Each structure stands twice: as C-alpha cells, then as structure tokens.
Amino acid sequence: MKQIELGRQGLKTAQIGLGCMGMTVFGNMDVYGKANEKQAIATIHRSLELGGNFLDTADVYGPFLNERLIAKAVKGNRDKYVIATKFGMEINEDGQWSGNVNGKKDYVRKAVELSLKNLNTDYIDLYYLHRLDKTIPVEETIRVMGDLVKEGKIGYIGLSEVSSETIKKAHAIHPLTAVQTEYSLFERNVEKDGIKKTMDELGISLVAYSPLGRGFLSGKFKKPEDFPENDFRRIMIPKFEGEQFYKNFEILREIEKMAMEKDITTTQLSLAWLIAKGVVPIPGTKRIEYIEQNIAATMYSLSQDDIEKLEKIIPITVNTGDRYNAHGMSQVD
User: Fold this and answer.
1) pTM recorded for the entire structure
2) Residues 283-306: pLDDT tens digits?
3) Residues near 128 by beta carbon (within 8 Å), at least 6 away in sequence
4) Catalytic residue numbers, as ranges
C-alpha cells in the first residue's frame, strides 16, 4: 500500500489506517459488536502484512484496555507501526472516564506517561488531544505537548474535533501534523464549516474516523433494531434512530447502486471517495476479511465525474442526523 506524509513535519504512514476502538469494550458498552482479543491481534498483524501500519487508539478506550491490546499486538515489531493515541477524555483515579475533558498541564503529563506504559513503548508517534478543554486556552495544552516532542516522548501533535479557530491558535504555537474528526459520506460538517479548507491551507492532514458511517455504509443494518442491544450506536447516535435511520437508508440504497455499477463494495467506494479528497481514513474493524477489503480500496481511483455523481446522491446540505447525543455534541468544539 502507498505510503503518504501526514502534515508537513515528516511523519510517513499508510494511506489507510486501522481504527482499533472496537477491539475492546468502552466502559460497559460493546463497540461495533463483541470484542475478541485473539481475532483483533490477528487483524492488526494482517494489516501490517498488507502495508497497513497506522494504528489508532485512545487511553479512554476501555479505559486503557485498547492501548494494552495494541502493546500485545506490536510486541517485537514496534518500530514497524505508526501508533496514534489520544488523551483528554479525563480518566479519574478509579480508572474510569469522568465525563469531563482535561487538557491542563499536569494532566497532559500524567496521561502521556500512562499511555507510554500501557502501550509498552518509550515513544508515541502521533499524540492527539481527544477533545478541547474549553476551560483553558488551547495554547496552554499545545505548549505542554510541544515540550513532550522535545523530550522525545511523542513524535507529532494532533487535535480531534476542533474548529478552524482552534486549529489556527494551536498551529501558531506548535505545528500540527493532523486533525482527526468524523468524516464520511454521511457526515460532512468538516467541509461545511470550512475546517477542511483551513487544514488544507495550513498543510495539516485530515484523519477521518468513522469513515464508513459507523458501519452504516456496509449495508448490513436494515433497521435500527439490527444494531446489537448493548451496542453504543443504539445508545449514543441519533442518526440511527427511528425515522432518521430510514431516511439515511434510502440514500444508502442509491450509493449501493453506484458501487454495483463499479463492481466494488459500498465501503470501498466510500473509502475511495475519501482518499480522492486527500483524506486518511481509519476504518475500524476487528476482522481480517474486512481489513483486506478496506485496504483493497486503495486500488480504486475515482474520477472527478465519479466524485460529483456520488456527491449528488448525498449532497453536503442533506441532514443525516446528529452524530452524538447531547452530551457528546457538547464536547465537540
């Protein structure tokens, strides 16, 4: 698989990454189905065999369980992987997410040491602030992260779910390599709000999580009840509820028709669209068959006509529903 440069600071990585969130539980909820550690580690190894060396995790996934799983998977081959992790979703003394965001100096240093320990590594390739701490200036957090770069504990800096204004403020303190946000055919606010334009101008790469609409673009969910009972998509994602689900499903049918015409899967079409827009998608999976399908999407090139046709099926102006519940949306900058 083609290697590309994230940002302008020299970080090279695979064209498609692997989102690892679903490989462990999140609190008491399953993420995209039941987790299976052996299966997950085999998927990480297969990804590397195909050139997929970019792994995405966060301290809050579990909490801590996800980073520890990755440590097991990369043992003996650490230098072959590019590991991105995130901090800031505050984890309390009981090892649980407090529900708050913390980007203060002392917490940044505490968080990085825990992640280094859990990942069993002495450096983190790409370190993201998971959500903006709105109680302090972002510059305060970025200065500490810049110090961690100087100390060799992290290689490059990223932010997640932030506005253009925040990106500009942070980038002025220390160059940002990447900004991670939800971005897919069913979630294009990063374009609508001008965030992608800001990043393009500053030379910051966009890393798209949930590039397959949290699995919706796979087409295997025909009604809201198809999501497993304890799956966070039934609990936290309004766009998968009631009438909104069925509106989105009708759009999905049209996307499926276009994929069939091109003799590729809907997920591959969706990933090829993101790649054509200069984005690095990090679809999550814990199954070898799906990592193989996802990476195969890099072999398909979409023409400008293809892109325009796809974006006519689902224009940027279409309301596909909120992507988080009220609490989740309150933590998006």
Assistant:
1) 0.92
2) 999 899 999 999 999 999 999 999
3) 58, 84, 85, 86, 87, 157, 158, 159, 160, 178, 180
4) 61
